[in-house]
Specification:
Elements: E1 8-17, E2 24-34, E3 39-43, H1 50-57, E4 65-70, E5 73-74, H2 80-87, E6 90-93, H3 105-114, H4 118-121, H5 124-134, H6 150-162, E7 168-172, H7 180-197, E8 200-204, E9 216-221, E10 224-225
Parallel strand pairs: 3-8, 3-9, 6-7, 7-8
Antiparallel strand pairs: 1-2, 1-4, 4-5, 9-10
Helix pairs in contact: 3-5, 3-6, 5-6
């Protein structure tokens, strides 16, 4: 495969936190290529830099040094308008579900479409219901988060990430709140999206139950990706 097939192409990426004497380097010379349709798992101890890397590639932090090319766009020095355009083509799944407590499951999933403009909202109810059904929540669409279990809330958050048909999905411990079968089903769904739509997924996880689903497994240690 070549860079044409690479929605994510990272070269020489470094990152620091803090200022002055408190400045600390947290990523060192990261080189990473993700290919279209891949499911890549990123492992490593807490504090190794996994989440920082995800947020940089996902346009949630400013790229300080090196090159980060996402969907054909260089993120270092990118304008806010370009970053917004890129974010609209991404799906984010975090360990904390971040649902709006006053909205139903269906309405929470709808929020994943709102960034795409009025055209995407035309059939929001059908699209949201379809994603919830994929998560096995067809009988929980009208429930507010307070009436859902932890695992059900996480599946709503995953449906919200998928409803906009993203080109790239960034997932940070997406199966942490799920039982074995539910976690495996979610990763199997992401795998199918890769095969059917070319969706690329980069997943941070400590969950050994799903490692056999990955196309590649990468390990980070002290801010570096190990060979």
């Amino acid at each position: 495969m070549t860079a044409i097939n690479s929605p994510v192409l990272i070269k020489g990426l470094n990152h620091w936190f803090g200022e002055g004497e408190a400045r600390k380097q947290v990523l060192y010379d990261i080189n990473l290529t993700l290919y279209e349709g891949e499911l890549v798992i990123l492992m490593g101890a807490s504090g190794s830099g996994k989440t920082t890397l995800l947020t940089l590639i996902g346009c949630l932090r400013e790229v300080q040094d090196g090159s980060a090319c996402l969907l054909g766009h260089e993120l270092r020095g990118a304008s806010e308008d370009l970053l917004v355009q890129c974010r609209r083509r991404l799906g984010f799944i975090f360990q904390a579900h971040n649902l709006h407590e006053s909205l139903t499951a269906l309405q929470n999933v709808r929020m994943g479409l709102e960034v795409h403009g009025p055209d995407a909202m035309t059939h929001w109810k059908d699209a949201s219901a379809r994603c919830l059904s994929l998560m096995g929540l067809e009988d929980r669409m009208d429930y507010i988060p307070a009436n859902l279990s932890g695992g059900q809330k996480q599946r709503v958050a995953i449906a919200r990430a998928l409803v906009g048909n993203p080109d790239v999905i960034f997932a940070d411990e997406p199966t942490a709140a799920l039982d074995k079968d539910s976690g495996y089903d979610v990763v199997a769904l992401l795998k199918r999206l890769g095969k059917a739509r070319g969706t690329t997924t980069l997943m941070v996880t400590h969950d050994p139950r799903i490692l056999d689903m990955a196309d590649r497994i990468l390990t980070m240690e002290d801010g570096r990706i190990l060979a």
